[in-house]
Specification:
This protein is 74% helix and 0% strand.
């Protein structure tokens, strides 16, 4: 889940695009004559209200960019191909089928994917029996799955804090508007109320832009993590199934019933090990 600086650029740019995409329907408003005025819409959605209103507004805009960047980053980091690469699983299967257990353990030590870490913990318990290997799968998968789930909790925090900051701007904007009414003796010019009402509505808008994607993405990514970790456990148990006592007896019985005949033909050459992928 580490992200290099050059990769971060490819995350922030799409995030900025998504923020502007969500904001574009509201930005495309006319000035009453059917003509869109860029200056007025920019001032309304990016530079409206008093000094405090502008501060709250830009805090929310920056939070929306961070939220979109985190959504993209976590979605990419928790893809199935990153957690359990297909070529890596096939290589483990080839090594175990050929009884190259030492090579499998050494490859697992270099494999820093989630599946590789589970297999390393599992194969390390081979000397303690099949039951110990099964426990290692469950414990390591739970540990790594919980670690991934905890890493996306930041999205839930943003999803809760963003609308609250927007609500703060809403309350502050309405206080400004009512203060104008008091100052004008209860008969204010509607234009005098524009700053307060604009602050209230625009900060609410940007608070929702932060909160809705963050909460929705956190739930979807968590479900994806749970599904991937279940698949990791199932695949790991399938690979070590040959270590089960029943499997050994079946293999021995099959050998004796066959009259000790050995399959003819050259032994297949193992494929080159795939390069371990970062998790």
């Amino acid at each position: 889940m580490r992200l290099r600086l050059n990769q971060m650029c490819w995350v922030i740019l799409p995030a900025l695009f998504l923020v502007l995409f969500f904001a574009s329907p509201a930005l495309a408003q006319g000035d009453g004559s059917g003509t869109v005025t860029t200056e007025s819409t920019f001032k309304m959605f990016f530079w409206s209200g008093s000094a405090l209103g502008k501060i709250v507004l830009w805090i929310l805009i920056l939070m929306s960019m961070v939220t979109m960047a985190l959504v993209i980053m976590y979605a990419l980091a928790n893809r199935s191909d990153n957690i359990m690469p297909g070529d890596t699983v096939d290589h483990y299967a080839d090594l175990l089928e050929e009884k190259r257990f030492r090579d499998a353990i050494e490859f697992a030590e270099m494999d820093d994917t989630t599946f590789g870490q589970v297999m390393h913990a599992t194969l390390s318990q081979a000397s303690n029996g099949y039951a110990a290997m099964e426990r290692a799968i469950e414990e390591q998968a739970d540990l790594l799955g919980n670690k991934r789930v905890r890493s996306i909790e930041l999205l839930n925090v943003l999803g809760a804090v963003g609308p609250m900051i927007g609500l703060f701007g809403t309350v502050y904007g309405m206080i400004e508007a009512f203060q104008v009414i008091v100052t004008k003796g209860g008969q204010p010019n509607p234009a005098d109320l524009a700053d307060g009402i604009s602050t209230a509505l625009v900060t609410t808008f940007w608070g929702l832009i932060v909160g809705i994607p963050a909460v929705a993405a956190a739930a979807l990514i968590r479900n994806k993590i749970d599904g991937n970790m279940v698949e990791v456990m199932v695949q790991s148990e399938e690979l070590i199934s040959q270590f089960a006592p029943g499997a050994k007896k079946t293999a021995a019985g099959g050998s004796s019933s066959g009259g000790g005949a050995k399959p003819s033909g050259p032994k297949p050459q193992p494929a080159a090990p795939p390069k371990p992928r970062p998790s």
